[in-house]
Design goal:
Helix content: over 70%
Strand order of the largest sheet: 1-2
Strand content: under 5%
Number of strands: 2
Length: 218
């Protein structure tokens, strides 16, 4: 559950604060190293995501890049001690996934309705299997936002639980078996590095799948 402090839900604070950490670009010809690195990363990521899309899909550049930076920041900040990770809440992830997925579907139905409905029936399907395949493809289409939200929630929650269990084991074993506790602490350090990688990869996968859904419909 989202904890509260002085009546303020920490979910709201956790969603608002990450934007403060990013410096704003200036109007000068030369920026400092941090701004240059930030701009290089954003440009590279935007090129990577938009490469398979046609010009109609390039309108999504701002929202996809912003979502990627937002998710990466929330995921990595959530690995700090005594912090709350909003992206471990299924409700938040579904609130991000469902409207964006629905927008891609509606764009497909508006721009190319025949092609969008044609995805529900693969070409060359035997006639007796047509009703079953239409139902299966419709279910697979409707389950996409749920899969997006559950994937992000499950990966982050599992990583946090592993870190919690490993750190508790290291703390308990410190007085009884110091050698084993040291090995457990090393394992915890490696697990933390893995979780930083997972935090970045899961944010990238979330946005990449959204761009693939968009690619089908533009």
């Amino acid at each position: 559950m989202s904890p509260t402090y002085l009546g303020i839900p920490l979910l709201a604070l956790a969603l608002t604060l990450p934007w403060i950490f990013y410096p704003s670009p200036t109007a000068r010809w030369l920026n400092n190293r941090l701004l240059t690195l930030q701009a290089w990363f954003i440009n590279r990521f935007t090129q990577q995501i938009l490469m398979p899309l046609n010009m109609g899909g390039h309108k999504w550049a701002l929202i996809l890049t912003s979502l990627m930076i937002f998710l990466i920041t929330l995921n990595i900040l959530g690995l700090l001690p005594y912090t709350f990770t909003p992206t471990t809440q299924l409700s938040l992830n579904l609130a991000l996934a469902f409207p964006l997925w629905l927008a891609t579907v509606l764009i497909g139905l508006r721009n190319q309705p025949t092609a969008a409905l044609g995805h529900l029936l693969p070409e060359g399907t035997p006639t007796p299997l047509i009703p079953i395949l239409v139902v299966i493809e419709t279910i697979s289409l409707l389950i996409r936002p749920l899969a997006l939200g559950v994937r992000l929630t499950a990966n982050l929650t599992a990583g946090h639980l592993l870190m919690q269990l490993t750190s508790t084991a290291a703390f308990v074993l410190l007085s009884m078996m110091p050698a084993v506790a040291i090995l457990t602490t090393i394992l915890l350090f490696l697990l933390t590095l893995l979780e930083v990688a997972v935090a970045m990869i899961q944010a990238y996968v979330f946005v990449l799948l959204l761009s693939l859904y968009l690619q089908e419909n533009v």
